[in-house]
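pinned: reference chain
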Amino acid sequence: MKKITFLLVVMASLSIGFAQQLTFIDFGSTATGYTSDGNWNNIATANAGSTAGLTANLIDSNGVSTGVTLTINDEFDTVNTAGTSSPDTSLPFPSTATRDSFFGETVTFNGKLEATGGFILTGLDTASYYSFSVFAARSGVSDNREALYTITGSSTKTGSLNASNNTANTAEILNVLPNASGEITFTAQPGTNNNNSSGFYYLGAIQMTKSSNQLSTKALELTNSLSVYPNPVSNTCSISFKLNGKSQVALTIYDLTGKSLSTIYNEKVSTNNFHYTWNRSNEMATGIYILEINVDGTKLNKKLILN
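pinned: its structure tokens
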């Protein structure tokens, strides 16, 4: 029992000192090919179906319950399935998440008028920061269909995104603290540059990052592009992510107590696409470790499982 208690304490400290929790949400259609597999949260309705009151108990990217509930408390019109099937590979969103979305409008459409649409998150940790990467796409159009996203917790922050023919852009809204009740509200509506005659706006997918410390835009970009595969690791794994020009990159492995075990890479690189294949040392035993990625002082940590 003492060993189990110690492990739980270590894992608790790990979540505070190292980890960022990622949660992926796909808004759109229940039709075949439009829901995202794996540890994704699908907030979905039938084509032409109602979005009112849709709710989900969210899981994180590891499939673990977050304790957070998402509820659509401001109805969208319904589903649009004319998004992109070819999202930029640097995005953390698969085509199943980018090809559909919820939408609203500022004039009557489908017998409805939904000038705003949104949801509420409950059960959030009031001591943690929540950052949002928001994607939406509407292909085959020539006007501006910008959405304004307003996120309110203990303060209010905003971001904008034009969905028209979008394949690569996201709205980044960083470091929102929940209110005292552990809640954050998210509202979408047409942005100031939206010139569509119906005021169409869209919400397609979200990556939500929970962190104990405030994130920089650079840290979020690194989080979005990071790939460690395979994980669990038997013999080798490939580590890759995006860079913005020349960078000093260091990769260090820690144990669960925070002790540094090995710096497996530490060099100045000039490529925009970093790739490193790590050959596991026989001296490193089976177990759970932390891989720290340090790019010019911006640090990101990833759980590493060695078989």
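why pinned: Residues 1-18 have pLDDT under 50 and may be disordered. The first helix runs from residue 2 to 17.
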